[in-house]
Amino acid sequence: MTSRLVCLYLSVSLCLWGSSAYAADKWVSIHTRNFTLIGNASESDIRRTGRTLEEFRSAMALVFPKVDQVSAAPTTIFVFKNEDSFKPYKPIYKGQPASVFAYFQPGDDVNYIALSAGLPSPNAILHEYVHFLLREHVGSLPLWIREGLAECYSTFDLNGRQTEFTLGRAPEQHIATLNMTPQFIPLKKLFDVRDDSPEYNEESKQGMFYAESWAIAHYFLFGVDGKRRMQFVDFVTALAKGNPPDASFAEAFQTDYETIETEVREYIRKRSSWPTMKVTSKDPIQTDGRSTVSTLSDTETEYYLGDLLLHLNRLQDAEMHLTAATSKSNDFAPAQASMALLRVRQKKYDEALSLLKTTAEADSKNPMIAFYYADVLQRGDAENGFANVSEDRTETIRTYAKKSIELAPQFVEAYGLLARVDLNSGQHLDEVEETLKKALAIAPGREDFQIWLAQAYLRTNRTPEAHSVLESVERNTASSETRRRAATLLNQGEQSLGLAEITQSIESELLRKERAPEEVQSVSLAGLAPPPSRKAEDTVLESLTPVGPSVQGEKLSGLLINLDCANGLTLRVRTGNDTVELHSSNPDRIQFLSYNADVGSNVQCGPRNPGTPVNVTYRPVPGGQGDPLVIEFPEKK
Ligand SMILES: [Zn+2]
After folding, report:
1. What is the Cα–Cα distance from 209 to 308, expressed in whole angstroms?
2. Rounded Cα–Cα distance for residues 289 and 51 (Å)
3. What angle do CA 208, 616, 2 make, to 5 degrees?
C-alpha cells in the first residue's frame, strides 16, 4: 500500500469521474505469460498493467534469479476502472474501506493484487508485486521492511531501452514528506508498526511511515556505496528465520538503533540527488507480448469479486457475490469451490462438507478444496473423539491431503494434516517422518511440526531422535506453552506414549486455536536485496548515478487561481501581470506533486482565492493552450 501523493491523484480524478460512474460494466480477463488480469477498466489499461508487470518481472529476474521460479500460487490482478468502482473491494480498517489505492492480498491458493486504473504512475502495481516477491521468496518480515523495499524497487524504470534499467530512483512524494515533516519516527517505534497500527492505516500518518521506511531501505541498499547492503541482507535473512529483531539488528549492523537513525537523517539532509543502480544486460529483457482476452460472463464476474472478498476475509460481502454466482449457474466449479471455502470460514461445517465433497470429487484443481475436504472430515472425527472412524474415511482424508500437496507443494498445512491423520490412526507411521521433514524444509520455523515429528519418533521407539528434536524446540522457542509441551514430552519419552494421548494433545490444541485465514507462511531464503554474486558477464552493475526529473517540457511558475474540472482540466495561472491558461483533455495523465502541507491530499476544483503557488511543466501547443504535464505545489517559504 502506498499513500500520500496518490491520494492527490485520486481526489482530482474523483471529481472528473463523478458524472460517468455507473454505466454498465464490461468485465474482461486477460492472460499474459505469468499473470491473469481481471477488470472493468478499458482493455488497453488492463493490457498496459500486464505488460508493465511482465517487464518488471523479467528485469527483476535478472538481478534476483529466484524470481524466475514457478510460484507456489497463481497471481490474479484486478484492474478496476476507477476509485468508485474499486472502493467496495478494499480491505476494511475501523469499519471503513482502508485508505489505500492498491493492495496485495496473499493466499495459499491464489494471490490477489487490486488497484484502480488511471493512476498515471506504474509504481502502484510494481509496489504490490514486490510484496508478492517478498512473501514468495523471503517470508514473513516486519512491515517497514516490506513497505521500504516495495517503495525502493517500485520506481523501476526501463529507461526506454530493453537492455538497461534503473532501480532506486527517489519518489518525489517521499522527499517532500521527509522535508516537511520535522519529526522522524524513532527507529524502534517504526520497526514495531504492524498491519493494524494507525501509522499504517491513517491517511495523516501513512505518509511519514512510508517515506521513512523507504529512506532507510534506500540508505541500506544504495547509500554509502553499498557499505551497509550486505549487513542489511544479513539482517533480513535473520528476521526471515524468525530470529529476535533487536539482537539480529545489533549483530548485523554492529551498532545500535540511534547510530543508524543518525546516519539515515544525515543521508536525507545532505541529498539533492539520490544514488540509483543502473543494471544493463547483454540480452534484451524478455517480454512475451502475447496475451489472450476474453469477456467474462456475469457468473464469472460475481465469482471473481466474491473470491477476492473471501480472501480479504469480508465474509458477508463475499457471500452476496458467491450466492449470485452459484444461483446464476450451478455447474461453474470455481464458484462452488469458493462457496465451499466460505462455509469453512463461516464454520458452517455441515454445509461446507457437502459442497467440498461435490467439488473435490468433480476433480477440482484447487488445492484448497482438496485440503479443506480432508480437513473438515478430520475435524468431524476429532470432535467425535475419533470414535468409529472407518478405514475408508481415513483413506479418503489421506487421498485428498496428498492431492493438495501435489497441487500446491509449498502449502505446508496439507503436510501437517497428512502427518496428523497418520499419527492419529497409527497407520503409515513410517511415512510421517518424511512428510514432516518435507514440511519443515519449506517452513523450518514451524514448532508444531517439530513436536509432531518428535511424537512420531517416540511412537516408533526412536527416543534419541525424539529427544534431539525436543531439546532443540525447548531451547529455541519463544513461546512458554511450546516450551512446556516439549518438556512434558521429554519427560514422558522414556515410557511409550499411547495413541490417545498424542491424539488428544494435537487435536484439542487445534480445535482450541483455529488457524487464522491466509496466515503468512514463514519461508526462509535469502533476502530480496541485490545478491552478492551474479556472473559479471550477465549483468553489469554500473557505478551509482543520480537521476534528474524525468519529464521534459516548458516551465512556468505563478499562482493557481482557477482549476476548472469540466471538460478535461483547465488551469488558470497568474504570472506577474499575465494570466496563462493551460488545458488537458487527459487529466489523469497529469502528475500532481505537493511539497506544500496546506495543499495536502485534496486538490479542489474551482476558483482559488488567494491563489496557490504552483510550478507547471507543460508542452507548448502551437496556436493553442499549453498541455500541462506536471503540476507542482512547492514548499511554502
Ligand atoms: Zn505496500
Report:
1. 27
2. 7
3. 25
Query: Going by C-beta distance under 8 Å and a sequence separation of 6 or more, which residues neighbour residue 485?
Result: 451, 505
Q: Cβ of 183: how many Cβ atoms within 10 Å?
A: 6
Cβ atoms 616, 630 nearer than 8 A = yes
Could you tell me where the DSSP H helices lie in 270-366?
298-311, 315-328, 333-345, 349-361
Distance from Cα 630 to the centre of ligand 1, integer Å: 25
Ligand 1 centre distance from Cα of residue 335 (Å): 29
Do 29 and 36 touch, CB atoms closer than 8 A? yes
Of 220-229, 510-519, 521-530, minimum mean pLDDT range? 521-530
Angle subtended at Cα 26 by Cα 24 and Cα 28, rounded to the nearest 5 degrees: 165
pLDDT bucket at 630, cuts 50 / 70 / 90: low
pLDDT tens per residue across span 433-462: 999 999 888 777 778 888 899 988 988 888
Confidence of residue 524 (pLDDT cuts 50, 70, 90): very low
Q: How far is the CA of 112 from the centre of ligand 1 (A)?
A: 13
Ligand 1 center–CA 219 separation, angstroms: 18
Distances from the Cα of 419 to the Cαs of 25, 161, 484, 553, in angstroms? 47, 52, 22, 65
CA of 147 to the centre of ligand 1 (A): 5
pLDDT in tens, 174-218: 888 888 877 889 998 998 888 778 888 777 788 899 999 999 999
DSSP 168: -
* Residue type at position 587: P
Measured in Å, residue 456 CA sits from the centre of ligand 1 at 41
pLDDT, tens digit, 9 for 90 and up, residues 7-47: 333 333 333 333 333 346 899 999 998 899 999 999 999 99
Three-state SS for 188? helix
Cβ distance 525 to 241 under 8 Å? no
**Distance from the alpha carbon of residue 265 to the mean position of ligand 1, in angstroms:** 23
CA–CA gap between residue 551 and residue 17 (Å, rounded): 26
Q: How far apart, in whole angstroms, are the C-alpha atoms of residue 144 and residue 191? A: 6
Residue type, 431: E
Rounded to an integer, what distance in angstroms lies between the CA atom of residue 185 and that of residue 172?
A: 19
Cα(74)–Cα(63) distance, integer angstroms: 22
In 3D, which of 174, 185, 129, 121 has the Cα closest to residue 153?
129
Q: Determine the pLDDT at residue 12.
A: 35
Close Cβ partners of 552 (under 8 Å, ≥ 6 residues apart):
617
**Cα 482 from chain centre:** 30
598 vs 286, residue with greater confidence: 286
Q: Report the residue count for the chain.
A: 637
Give the Å distance between the CA of 146 and the centre of ligand 1.
Answer: 7
- Angle 118-301-327 from CA coordinates, rounded to 5°: 155
> Which domains can be identified in the chain, with CATH numbers?
4-289+525-546 (1.10.390), 365-515 (1.25.40.10), 554-633 (2.40.50)
Contact 567, 625 (CB under 8 A): no
Mean pLDDT over residues 503-509, rounded?
52
Q: 299-343: per-residue pLDDT in tens? A: 999 999 999 999 999 999 999 999 999 998 877 888 988 998 899
User: Nearest-CA neighbor of 140 among 106, 186, 165, 97?
Assistant: 106
